[in-house]
Each structure stands twice: as structure tokens, then as C-alpha cells.
Amino acid sequence: MKLQELANRFSVPGVRFETAHGGMIRIAIETAVSTGELYLHGAHVSRFQPAGCESVLWMSEFSCFEFDKPIRGGVPICFPWFGPHPSDAKLPGHGWARLKEWDLVGCGILDDGGVSLDLRTKSTDFELSFRVEFSKSLRMVLSVALTAGAIASRRFEEALHTYLRVGDIRQVSISGLESVAYLDKVGVLAKRDASGEPIQFSQETDRVYNETIDNCVLNDPQLGRTITIRKAGSLSTVIWNPWIEKSARMPDFGDNEWTGMVCIETANVGNNFVEISPGQVHTMKTEIEVTL
Ligand code: BG6
Hints:
By secondary structure, the chain is mainly β.
């Protein structure tokens, strides 16, 4: 759908359709409760800022805005696999959902004055719906079903790969995962016991916590805020910061940007893959809320 068609069809106060980086269509939200942005490319939330707060999501200054590449920062949707494809290295990392042009199918005003967006996309096997609520908090719901006519069940992995902006990664801590064992993806894959302590960062960190339904709280003394990440329909949480050397290896990630971000990803990955049958819908939700 072209820009003008979108504007005609979804004429909602506080919602603007614009052409942004790389000629991509972006939806800009500006209401009394929050401001935000979403690219149709990947149904990618790239900005969220509740009224009276600083920006919550991190975006790389070096992100590509090309239709065959993911956007770096914000909230990429990883689906239907996480990381490299298990058997075909030529397929895109973290699946195809973040590379697709999604369709906007709904746009409305929430009771508190925020805005909701409903998007859809599909492949031969899966139909995806994504609802984003730019409210006082940011709420995202990813729903997955099999395409009409499917006769067999299918498995998938998924993640809302949320990049959060922090004052200084070396000063933040994350609580909520103290009692959960994890898979350490830095270097050789290794299973590690629960640490018993909030997570702090002093090196590259790439961890998959499975079998956890718990919320996380990011404590950021430098920005003077905490961010609570609530979730439902998710058994995994992924924590990532690339630190110095990996940042330097990534072309769409500034060499010094690692200090200002951390990913806390609401997910179902690895042993927590999801299997759905024809007719079933699987829903994963997350809510990101700032407290000053
Ligand atoms: C994280 C993974 O979720 O995403 C990391 O655990 C990965 O291993 C990171 O490096 C970024 O992935 P990508 O494909 O966006 O560069």
C-alpha cells in the first residue's frame, strides 16, 4: 500500500505515515501518552518514548535501511528460527519475519489515548499477526497460526529482540533471572548454572535462559530509571551485549555503541521451540514499562 492510500485508509489522530530512511514507509505516532515509530519493513518498532521520559529503545546510528537487510536496534521480530538456520547457512539469521514488508490492517485509539497498530504477514506455512500498543508502556503481541489448508503441525522459534537504551552497560543490572540456568553462547556453547545474582556486564554477553516465565527489571542508575519487561506465552529470555570486538565486526553497529545498549528478548527458542497444529494460534506478549 502506498503512503497516500495508508493515510486515507487509517486516518487516526496522532498517526502519520512518512517515507523514512532507504525509502521505507514508517508510521510515526505522537499522542499525549507517548511517541513512537514503526517501519513496515519487519513490522519493526524503532522508537518508543513515554511522555516525560527519555527514549526507551536503542537504535544504531549505523543501521542499514535496505529491504534485504534487518534494521539494527528497536525491536526486530525473529521468526521462524533464532540465530543461524539449523541446516541451511544461506538462509537469513533470525528468520525471515524481520525482512518482510508487513501489511498494516488496523490502527486505533486506546482507552488511555495511546495508539494501537495491527500488522500481518505470511509465508507458505505461517500466518503472523503483530499488535503494537504505543501507550504509557509499549505492548507487543505476536500471534502465529498455520496457513489455511495446513494438515500437519509445525515447529518454530520466535523472539521480540528488544534493544534497550542504557546510560552505560557497565553500570546496569538485570534482575529476574537469578535462579535460572542458561546457555552461554559466547565462544563454545556451554550450559551454566544459575548465578544467584542479578546480571551485570563486564564482557561480551550472549545468554539464552530457558524455562523462565519471569519478568525482568533493568536497573539503570545513570539514566535514573528502571525498565520492567513483562511477558506471557514465552518460556525463554535472551540477554545480549556484543561488547568491544563483536561490535567492531558488525558493519551495521558502531564500534563504540555497545556501551549504550542491552537486549532483553522475550522469546521461545532452543528447547522452548513452539509446535502448533492446524487451527491453533500461539500468542507471545511483552510489555515494556519505564519507572523513574
Ligand atoms: C542475539 C543473539 O539475540 O542477536 C546473538 O543471541 C546475535 O548471538 C544477536 O549476535 C544479533 O543478531 P543479528 O543477526 O541481528 O546480528
